[in-house]
Specification:
Helix 8 packs antiparallel against helix 9. It is built from twelve helices and no strands. It has 330 residues and is mainly alpha-helical.
């Protein structure tokens, strides 16, 4: 019955579907070891040379959609039929319970019929379970085809999105491409797509970095948070960590340290150790530098709570670790 339903729908699905080189077999989806990616690979392999992959995948997706609808209809009809039998069985049992003593013989017959019905119901449940499994596999294949068609379209249009200059649109497109790759990553037509997406993400990061540095330097919390959201969409929050540390902590505090170093107090090029006067000047200068570090830490804790409420602790601690390493090298 399932095969007949799918065939009937396929006959009316249009001339384009009849021209498809790939036919849908229920046996493929009935296999418990059904592999979605292998099935989609086979579908892509059947694409005629003179037809675009996007159009071919769209046609196969439509066939799966029609087949899945037939399965859903058959499943609903079988379920309704099973539910309609339940009230009749309950009424029969209730009547038998009230007349047990007078109708012992009849009760035995009814019990036998109920046992037969139970066996039939178990078989119906098993059949419905298999039908539902087939439907689920077909829907998974349909979704994979849809993602493949969408990824092909995004790959073709992503340069136009970058040319438009809207960084939020760029991030949304790249995020969609990443999601699609997780589904269709094994399809040969897209084997070079991960490298291309990674390159586009680095390109977007380079576009955003000057704006991020500008926002951090100006303490523009609103703009900085907007850029942070875009970086999060593309999975590039590590760029925020590094740029924040360098712009707001490492660079300004290292200038203070290097300014003292430039006075010659700790000139490492000298063969002789620093004089007592140099050491005394350094000891006198160090508490002031420590106070500036403390003040900077307090300001950064307060500002990052506003600009980056979810990451402020990690950002500040990473910045201070980076500053410590740079000072040790200096």
């Amino acid at each position: 019955e399932e095969g007949k339903g799918v065939s009937a729908r396929e006959e009316g699905s249009g001339e384009s579907l009849r021209a498809s080189v790939m036919s849908i077999s229920m046996a493929d989806f009935d296999d418990p070891s059904f592999d979605v990616k292998a099935w989609v690979n086979a579908a892509c392999a059947g694409c005629p040379d003179d037809e675009s992959v996007e159009k071919f995948l769209a046609e196969v997706e439509m066939k799966l959609q029609l087949a899945a609808e037939d399965i859903s209809l058959a499943l609903e009809e079988q379920s309704n039929a099973g539910l309609n039998r339940i009230p009749r069985a309950v009424a029969e049992i209730d009547r038998v319970e009230h007349d047990t003593k007078a109708l012992q013989t009849r009760v035995q017959g009814i019990l036998k019929r109920l046992n037969d019905a139970e066996g039939s119901s178990r078989e119906s449940v098993r059949r419905l379970t298999r039908v539902d499994a087939v439907k689920g596999r077909m829907e998974a294949a349909r979704d994979t085809l849809r993602e493949a068609a969408g990824l092909a379209e995004l790959m073709a249009s992503v340069e136009d999105v970058f040319a438009a200059g809207n960084v939020r649109s760029m991030a949304d497109v790249l995020a969609s491409m990443r999601r699609a790759l997780k589904v269709v990553g094994g399809v040969p037509e897209f084997q070079d797509a991960p490298e291309k997406v990674d390159a586009l993400e680095r390109r977007l990061e380079q576009i955003l970095k000057p704006e991020l540095v500008k926002a951090l330097t100006a303490s523009d919390a609103i703009k900085a948070e907007e850029i942070r959201d875009v970086l999060k969409i593309t999975g590039r929050l590590n760029a925020l960590t590094a740029t924040y540390a360098e712009t707001r902590v490492v660079a300004p505090m290292l200038r203070e340290w290097n300014a003292f170093h430039a006075d010659g107090v700790e000139d490492e090029s000298r063969a002789t150790p620093p004089s007592a006067a140099d050491v005394r000047r350094f000891v006198e200068w160090l508490p002031g530098y420590a106070r500036k570090l403390h003040d900077r830490l307090q300001r950064e804790l307060q500002w990052t709570r506003t600009a980056f409420p979810k990451e402020h602790g990690a950002l500040v601690s990473s910045a201070w670790i980076a500053l410590s390493r740079r000072v040790n090298k200096a």
